[in-house]
Amino acid sequence: MLVVMDAHATNEQVRSVCARIESAGMKAHPIPGSNRTAIGITGNTGAVDIGAIEAMPGVIECIPVSKPYKLVSRDVKAEDTVIRIVAPAGTVQIGGGAVAIIAGPCAVESREQALMIAGHVAKSGAKLFRGGAYKPRTSPYAFQGLGEEGLKILAEVRDKFGLGIVTEAVDNESLDLVEKYADVIQIGARNMQNFSLLKRAGRAKKPVLLKRGLSATLDEFLMAAEYVMSEGNYEVILCERGVRTFNDYSRNTLDLTVVPAVKTRSHLPIVVDPSHATGKRHKVLPLSRAAVAVGADGILVEVHHDPDHALSDGMQSILPDEFVQLMEEVRQIAAVVHRRTN
Ligand code: PEP
Ligand code: MN
What we know:
Layout: E1 2-5, H1 11-23, E2 27-32, E3 37-42, H2 50-54, E4 59-63, E5 83-87, E6 90-94, E7 98-104, H3 111-123, E8 128-130, H4 148-161, E9 164-168, H5 172-181, E10 184-187, H6 195-202, E11 208-211, H7 218-230, E12 236-240, H8 258-265, E13 270-272, H9 274-278, H10 284-294, E14 298-302, H11 320-336, E15 340-341
Parallel strand pairs: 7-8, 7-14, 7-15, 8-9, 9-10, 10-11, 11-12, 12-13
Antiparallel strand pairs: 1-3, 1-4, 2-3, 5-6
């Protein structure tokens, strides 16, 4: 259910409606728009007393939201959500015409490795650095990440180069630590339906980058975002990273059609990860171009200065020089579709 407030409704009237909703055991989510505020109602297992709410001062009408996802839906918020990440080097916007570039290694392997790659990323003009301190690996014997030590290295990257940090949390304990050190909390593809982790991310005070599960439908993807938002964290960035198909020539199949499909259904920004989608270095640049052309709000790519010796995902990591070229081409393509990179 969505309560549409009058354009001239006062903050006090919005607060009273929220209080009324919460006193009936439901959760109220005020969503300010450019013209007026709407209030999403979740947790309503029974019928909502529409008449009582519609009679309150400042309320125009209550409209039922028929989609299974509510807060994620464009029905609830017509304009694009813009996520602002305040990095020491400047604020980065994701969504609403701004295309963000997030780059760095798959994993933080050592201080030297992270600082070396971060130096290249910063020099190329990107402002957001990625790198896993916690790695969800298919094999329990593969490198699992440096844990908190890796987060401390990322904090040093932030201080030294001014880059905002995007890094993954794999469980509730690591999320506590990631929230402390990072600017954006990544939830990986394998955890897209880890509902307790999604709820914990929903209580975090940092934006969440939510990757699409390996076989998730669009509804399942949006419902995962709904989990985060239903707990009160409205800063969700969706990330398409390829899904499993019968394709046997790349690691996954990059589903670029999901970008315009998300745009019609949701106000949330969506970025594309061509590295995990393809698994091959030479495919990263062409698919980055395509992602921006199709309307993605950002690109997340793996970059490594010595990919042959990387502890994870070396084959799909591009070299620093290739990243320079990617930044330039993506900037040019963004301009053609009336967007700007930042
Ligand atoms: C990653 O970004 O390094 C990662 C593990 O990605 P995904 O969850 O998409 O596999
Ligand atoms: Mn990786």
